[in-house]
Amino acid sequence: YRGYYIRARAVDHCVQDFLLKTQSLPRTQILSLGAGFDSLYFRLKDMGLLHGTVVYEVDFPNVACQKATLIKRMKELSALVGDTGGEGLGAITFSGEDYKLLGVDLSELSELERALEEAGLNNEVPTLFISEVVLTYMENTRSDALIQWAAEHFPQACFLLYEQVHPEDPFGRVMQQHFSQLNSALHSLAQYPDCEAQQRRFLGKGWTECSVMDMNEFFTCCIPEDEQQRVQTLEPFDEYEEWHLKCSHYFVLAASKGMEPSWTPLLPRVTVPRHAGPVGMAGSVPAAVCARLSGIPGLRRYGHRSVLIKPNVILTTGGFGEENGQHCRMRNFHVLSKHAGYWKAVCVTQNIPDRRWGERLYHTVSCLSDTLALVVGGRTSPSSAGLGMLWLRFPKTYNASDPDDIAVELVSLQPAAEAAALRWRHSTTEMTFKGEQYLFVYGGRSALEPVLGDWYFLHAPELSCAAIAVEGPIPESRHSHSACSWEGGVLIAGGLGAAEQPLGSVFLLRELEHGLQWQTIETHPPLVPRYSHTAHVHEGKLLLVGGVWFHASSVPGITVIDLMTGLCLDYVINVEHLEWPLMLHNHSSVFLPNEEELLVIGGGGNCFSFGTHLNPEPVTLSLSSILISH
Predict the structure, then answer these.
(1) What are the BP-aspect GO terms (predicted)?
(2) DSSP string covering 469-495, please?
(3) CA distance 574 to 552
(4) How much is the pLDDT for 7?
(5) Is 518 within 8 Å of 473 (Cβ atoms)?
(6) CA–CA separation, 495 vs 508, rounded Å?
(7) What is the mean pLDDT of the chain?
(8) Which CATH topology does 133-261 take?
(9) Which of 7, 104, 230, 442 falls 20 to 30 Å from 130 in CA-CA distance?
């Protein structure tokens, strides 16, 4: 519902701002282009906001006739509008004192102008034009002409536009494919692919002021904090990546001319620090599909975990994906092993006493030896997350050629450690303290708390909960961050914070003489805030892979942070040899140090209303060139 909420909220925000700024004027007009079955007029009328404002709605004749019939049929609507019997005159299909519904093709400008004149539209009255995902379906020459006509013929005018942007990144490609399949191609995207291009479009066609925001910025800057919190707690919600990607691919634009005072509905309510996007890409990383792993449906998944259980053997568990042509939570494990330079994958079924324990998303898997791994937390649904911990046991000779069943055992936890497992989107990292091995469980979220900032030290292997003193600046609560072992300590990077805002901080938890200390690692240029990425450490460098950030001009590729100097460099992933969009969120990745390669498994998700995109096959990313040059 959030995707539709933000659209309605943006339009209402701008329309009500227009009505408020012009309330002292005797008459104003709203002209809704391609209004469809929108209820804006009826909501404004019911709220008592239409003082001297006449609303004109235009759509294709068949749509306008259907809407007119609906209005006449519903007593509540016809009572609000007050039918004055003006329909039948030219293109007018319904007429009230302050509401005119016209059936006319927007792309025929002369017909539109004539119909509006017949309906009583007055060019000398301050007029707000509204276009919600309408102009983009028209040929650019026709939509440009309409934008210019509005500016030239109305001395005092405002224009509100809500449309898509960023057609060429992975989400944008899925979005475009969806509309193409509906035979509704988005024409404006090729010529106006980003917010800046749309702003130049309006300023070049007669509008003197123009501001534009993508919907992430609008939600953060223009919606009051209490309303943000209300929306965020309306229902169990865990689709942050899809929500933020959808919002980065839609914008709201407000243009005006001749308005006194000027119309500025997109002035931020609060000044939120705007993090710059990547300063510039330091180079590129080639991506290639793993030929022998194509066509294995169990590897099409997201929210899963992959771990190297010994050299050249990877275990992938959990997540949501595709099995037998159906989308479902993944119960079976997959084992990948490398022989003679090629990866091979097999599906492994396991017997778990309770079915729920196997079908988990956003859990962690920690390999404690070449025969033992620990699964911590995860969820089935956002309201069902009490999945505890599992031991996974496998033979020393384990590989994909001889996939014995993995023994799965429920972990019996001490009461003090139970809360460590009641979470998802957290991290579990191996660390040492005074020569002893611990698992550090940090952050995440739970069914009760949308974001957690606590941590647990579980002494391996019996998983008793240890109390260890920690000094230094405590990191702010986060989930969907990355965590890596480094020199006995733990590196935490990025994540999604309490206000559903990506974080750009990097922390190191390291051992001191008497305890542990949080230390901030300063990066320069500053790390672009992100979450839902994966991370690895290699020879003093922290590698961040993919994720989601709010800078839709590019998508996160590989970021390399030198842990000695703090130097932070971004690299784009070269996907020219991939025939499908590579979505690097909700994925898993395994670093293969000998080959200096990353194996990316799964990733993607539900792309708003555009369908589900799961990366169809694992991908290798060769890092040798960037690890040498860094």
Answers:
(1) tRNA methylation; wybutosine biosynthetic process
(2) -EESPPPPP-BS-EEEEETTEEEEE--
(3) 17
(4) 94
(5) yes
(6) 15
(7) 90
(8) Rossmann fold (3.40.50)
(9) 230
Which pair of structure tokens corresponds to residue 463? 């998983």
The amino acid present at 546, given as its one-letter code, is G
Rounded to the nearest 10 degrees, the angle between the axes of helix 240-248 and helix 170-181 is 80
Give backbone dihedrals phi and psi of 65, rounded to 5 degrees, phi first: -65, -40
pTM of the model: 0.93
Q: Distance from first CA to last CA of the chain, Å, rounded?
A: 44
pLDDT digit string, tens, across residues 402-417: 666 777 878 888 888 8
183 pLDDT higher than 70: yes
Cα 95 vs. chain centroid, distance in angstroms?
42
552-594 residue pLDDT tens:
678 999 999 999 999 999 999 999 889 899 999 999 999 998 8
- 383 φψ region: left (φ > 0), alpha (ψ -120 to 50), beta (else): alpha
pLDDT at residue number 525: 93
Nearest to 585 by CA among 169, 6, 237: 169
Give the Å distances, CA to CA, from 353 to 65, 164, 358, 410: 60, 48, 9, 9
3-state percent breakdown (helix, strand, coil) of the chain, nearest 5: 25, 35, 40
DSSP tag of 268: -
Closest listed residue to residue 627, CA positions, set 280, 285, 281, 288: 285
Collapsing DSSP to helix, strand or coil, 202 comes out as helix
- Residue boundaries of the structural domains of the chain: 26-125, 133-261, 281-622
* 151-164 per-position pLDDT tens digit: 999 999 999 999 99
Beta partners for residue 544, in sequence order = 535, 559
Sign of CA dihedral 294, 297, 300, 302: negative
H or E element in which residue 131 lies? strand 127-132
* Beta strands per DSSP E along 142-196: 157-164
